[in-house]
Amino acid sequence: MIVASRLALLVTTATFLMSAGADADYGPQADVAAVRSSELQAWQNYLGAGNHQRVVIDDVRVCGIYAVLWWRFGESGGMSAYQRVAAETWKRIAHGGGAFGRSMVTSFGASEHCVHALIPAEKDADNLH
């Protein structure tokens, strides 16, 4: 039963990640670029210079002071969330493998409008089965 559950989770995550790159970035381009840069810097700090180039950021979505993005690294993938802390400065507030659900973004304090803009219904991990 545990193996079947893990397999179902892997298939769901793989399906989710394959659809992640299908969408365009969302939000002001300057903010999208700043969030993407912050994520790449975080990966560089973690992996070391040069290795971060293997990280692919498929989609960055910004609404108000919050942003989420989908990343891939080899066979792994997941999401990161950011909050604006100054005019052009973004701080990572969540990061992990797999998909985030709208409930997680709501817990950050994002408005309902932003929650829906940041996590489209087809990517809402709360409803992926």
The fraction of residues in strands falls at: 25-35%
Largest sheet composition: 4 strands, antiparallel
Number of strands: 4
Order of helices and strands: HHEEEEHH
Low-confidence regions: 1-22
What can you see in these coordinates?
The chain has four helices and four strands; from the N terminus they run H-H-E-E-E-E-H-H. The protein has helices spanning 2-20, 29-47, 102-108, 112-118; strands spanning 55-63, 66-73, 76-86, 89-97. A four-stranded antiparallel beta sheet has the order 1-2-3-4, with helices on both faces. Strand 1 and strand 2 (66-73) form a beta hairpin. Mean pLDDT is 82; it is low at 1-22.
Q: Which key features would you list for this structure?
A:
129 residues; alpha+beta; four-stranded antiparallel β-sheet; 29% strand
What's the arrangement of secondary structure elements?
Layout: H1 2-20, H2 29-47, E1 55-63, E2 66-73, E3 76-86, E4 89-97, H3 102-108, H4 112-118
What is the compact description of this entry?
The protein is α+β, with helices and mostly antiparallel strands and 129 residues long.
